[in-house]
Protein: dITP/XTP pyrophosphatase
Amino acid sequence: MRKLETKTIVVASHNAGKIREIQELIGPLGFTAKSAAELNFVEPDETGTSFEENATIKAVASANAAGMPALSDDSGLVVDALDGDPGVYTANWAETPSGTRDFDMAMAKVEKALQDAGATTPEQRTARFVSVLCLAWPDGHTELFRGEVEGSVVWPPRGGQGFGYDPVFQPEGYGVTFGEMSGEEKHGWSVGKPQALSHRARAFKLFVETCLEA
Structure:
């Protein structure tokens, strides 16, 4: 495992919600970070078939372009009754013909698929959010960190916090969705001390323990 010796990195993402969450997590640790979007880096094609592969593609592309370490996230909603869909294609389910992403449409698409599968009770609608972080250096070295949080898909969507599919995901043991939680509640951390409720915070906690702590 390689330690990260700089506090200046690139957030290898063009997703505004994801960039915000990663910056919320790394900010208290004293990082200076710009996103791939801010730096006008070309968004690489995510041709992998796993979260790990796609996270690596994005981190390596930004690390090479910036000449400094880059941190990426590839994440998605994995629904058991849908044989793991949308999974690594979570963002694709939100794509519109114009090339934009409509997550209200994507959430409705998941709900229709669940209804078509006869999954109507909470026990039939189990799901998990998965996040894989990749930290890449310009010399090609990478470190991967995977976090998951169990829960279920609810309908109709609830809450206007977060982004993506947050309004339809209710984490196990909670009576509210991610869309009804503040960033602090969703991540489950106090400043600089991630307690890791969300999938991204759990992956981030592993990143901190592996690459930052002595």
